[in-house]
Specification:
single chain, alpha/beta, 7-stranded mixed beta sheet, 22 strands, MeTrfase_TrmA_CS
Length: about 475
């Protein structure tokens, strides 16, 4: 649906009304001052804050206001007068158009410096709790080709860049790639992605080219029509195993020949699957995944433990980085072999099984039933006998009866989703009063909010940022809390 032109005029008028409060010269030759949360940079003008994207601290730019709020504006650069000394040359041809790797224009040391700063600032500003000196951020073992999972989307009408449009050339618009920033319905065709090791790029291009040559219908994201919808590739560097999942809108006689072609061309594929999905979104946790060739899973290995990863399984997307993360969490837990450990938001039981050899017993709790089944299988195939797993809403499972049945934990490890822990779960932790809590987070902001609540009974004694996603603003953080 096209936006109402009157509505658009009202929005632009509101933006312009706020922007007019700033003298025009204040938006020209502006020096970008600092990096803040979510990878945005900041400029301050009197009592007004301007958040700017696509820039680096030290850039001198002209700005165009794109959004207006009571106490801040958002803007984009329209002209660069001077480039920051912090800048480096991006290595990807799709940088600036693709929605990922938005920090490629910054050197890695600069990236990690700002991630460290983000953790420190967030814990102090939002958490408002006393924290020790933050340990130096742990770097990602790899800066390119570090992801073990990528999802690509088919589109019958791919996004063209300004350069492509200006060239006047005729482009095949049938695309298989990533969403452009802020647009769910626009897909940029990707030639080479630096995030996942080969044969990821080769498989994606082979499928795209086969589909083009054989006139298979690429999906229409808005109307939800066509045949080809989504492609997922999962790789396991530790074992060399490889999974491919093809999502189609409907059953069609062309699916099996395509899968046969892919399997023959890439014999290294150990798990080839497809899903029929005509829902309004690409999630398929409630749908049947058909294993067409090979095994219905791949396996990752870590310290001699093997973890099965199925089409619906969660596994940290940076395998080597996850090993760093788990070692830090285990070190913070200070296990001697006698502890009862609660592993909350256990997922497929990766952390639970990873620490089980150093603990007396581990109890894992997870909302997703399929993940709990995976966790039990992972214990079974590794001969781990001192774990047990339960499925259900965390705030409901962690009842007084549950704690009485399993015992008061000596250590709680919690690794919640980006939204952090429900306030009722925090209350359960305060009631349990475990001597130590190890809080692993992918979102320092929600972690800081939870730390403020836990401050009633716990003090923060260690903070360790971990970089799992180079060239993005995302950062993991591990905090050790001890009972006061």
């Amino acid at each position: 649906m096209r936006a109402n032109p009157w509505f658009r005029r009202i929005i632009f008028a509101l933006v312009n009304k706020t922007a007019k409060k700033i003298p025009a010269e204040a938006l020209r030759e502006v020096e970008i001052q600092d990096m803040v949360a979510e990878g945005k940079c900041i400029v301050r003008h009197e009592n007004l804050v301007i958040f700017v994207t696509q820039v680096a601290p030290g850039d001198v730019v002209d700005l165009r206001v794109t959004r207006s709020k009571k106490n801040f504006l958002e803007a984009v650069p329209t002209h660069f007068h001077k480039y920051s000394d912090l800048r480096v040359e991006p290595f990807c041809q799709h940088f600036g158009t693709c929605g990922g790797c938005k920090w490629q224009h910054l050197g890695y040391d600069t990236q990690t410096k700002y991630k460290q700063q983000q953790v420190e600032d967030t814990l102090q500003r939002i958490g408002k709790v006393q924290i020790p000196e933050v340990l130096p951020i742990a770097h990602s073992p790899a800066l390119q080709y570090y992801r073990n999972k990528l999802e690509f989307t088919f589109s019958f009408m791919g996004w063209l860049t300004e350069e492509q449009i200006k060239s006047g050339a005729d482009f095949d618009r049938r695309a298989l790639g990533f969403h452009t920033p802020g647009r769910f319905d626009k897909i940029i065709d990707v030639e080479h992605c630096w995030l996942q090791p080969e044969p990821s790029n080769a498989i994606r291009l082979a499928i795209r080219n086969y589909a083009r040559e054989n006139e298979l219908r690429f999906g229409n994201i808005i109307k939800q029509t066509g045949l080809l919808r989504n492609l997922i590739i999962r790789t396991a560097e530790s074992t060399g195993e490889l999974m491919v999942i093809l999502q189609c809108y409907r059953q069609h006689q062309a699916i099996e020949p395509l899968l046969d072609y892919v399997y023959e061309k890439f014999p290294e594929i150990t798990s080839l699957n497809y899903v029929l999905n005509d829902k309004g979104n690409e999630t398929f946790h409630d749908l049947e995944v058909v294993c067409y060739k090979g095994k219905p899973y791949i396996e990752e290995e870590m310290e001699g433990l093997r973890f099965r990863v199925g089409p619906k399984s969660f596994y940290q997307t940076n395998s080597a980085g996850a090993y760093n993360l788990y070692k830090i969490a285990r070190d913070f837990a200070q296990l001697s072999g006698n502890e009862l450990v609660y592993d909350l938001y256990t997922g497929a039981g990766t952390i639970a099984n990873f620490v089980a050899r150093q603990a007396r017993h581990v109890v894992g709790v997870e909302y997703v039933e399929q993940a709990v089944q995976d966790a039990r299988v992972n214990s079974e195939i590794n001969g781990v006998t001192n774990t047990e797993f339960y499925a259900g809403d965390m705030k409901d499972v962690l009842s007084a009866d549950f704690i009485q049945q399993h015992g008061r934990p000596d250590v709680v490890i919690t690794d919640p989703p980006r939204a952090g822990m429900h306030v009722d779960v925090v209350q359960r932790l305060l009631e349990m009063r475990a001597p130590r809590i190890v809080y692993v987070s992918c979102n320092p902001a929600t972690q800081a909010r939870d730390l403020e609540l836990l401050d009633e009974a716990y003090k923060v004694v260690k903070v360790q940022p971990v970089d799992m996603f180079p060239h993005t603003h995302h950062v993991e953080n591990v905090v050790l809390l001890e009972l006061r």
